[in-house]
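Q&A log
Question type: sequence-to-structure
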Amino acid sequence: MERVLRTLGKTDLDKLPIDEGMNLGRVSIVHGSHAEVIWCHDDGREELSTCQFATNLNLRPVAGDWVTLRDGYIVAVLRRRSALRRPDPNLRDVQILAANLDLVLLVVPIDRGLNVRMLERFAVMAFDSGARPLVVLTKADGTSDATALEIQTELAVPGVDIVTTSSLSGEGIEQLRRLLHEGVTAVMLGASGAGKTSLLNALEDRDEATLSVSSSGEGRHATTTRKLYRLSSGGVLLDIPGIRLVDLMSGQDGVDETFSDISEIATRCRFRDCAHNGDEGCAVQAAVDSGELPASRLENWRLIQSQMSNQTRRRDPATSAAKRKRPKRSSG
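Response status: OK
Response body:
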């Protein structure tokens, strides 16, 4: 049984208690009130089944969840060690996209330049998930200036590793394949048309359906459900639908990690709660004025902070109002 679970991405970090009379499995795809689960019999045999949700299920499962089964029903979703999330379209709840991740692949095409704001938002989501982000630049065959775009990427997400790829030429595919080894569960996070399905095809020599991209650069969804793939390199890859609008729901840590350059400079601000928006003694604004920090970098940080504040107000107006009333200006 342990051998099968390892091929499904189980690591020593996954604590998977199971009661007698139940079986253990991992969710591959969720459809409404049922899910496809790859699970193990007591003798170690593997099976793929479509399982209904038990009426008292503790949590709605998502792709990547470890679950326990009994008589064809999912009876429990086990503790998640990481989760990729975003605001639900209703603007009040949380939508979990994938669970129990080790690596979040930020899939960004560069054939039409680099969308820095989207990359930064993807990075915030990745850091917030508890998994490690990795930027995968795709469609490198469509640009003559890949090196300059890599430098731009490094400035947008300091300290995050980058792999530049082309599904057509094979550039970077083997490098990426080596990172997706046994014990690694990864998810591809990117906009529609970013080349995620083509990337999967290149990694695994598959022929998953791909759809064309419009002249504006916006793609159509080739992936319409969340799927779990066991890779020949030993890892597990979750392929989720492309994201058209990147709304954020994150703790401050995710923002601080993504904007680590601003976080470091902010330690020199006069006030610990400096908002970097005209505050007296603001080291971040001084860094912009001196040319140490690009003005666009600070502007993007402000936009993300504003968006997160708006999300907080929608979800919890009372708490948000209480925070606004707290005294400020502690420089000790």
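Response note: Confidence is low (pLDDT under 50) at residues 210-224.
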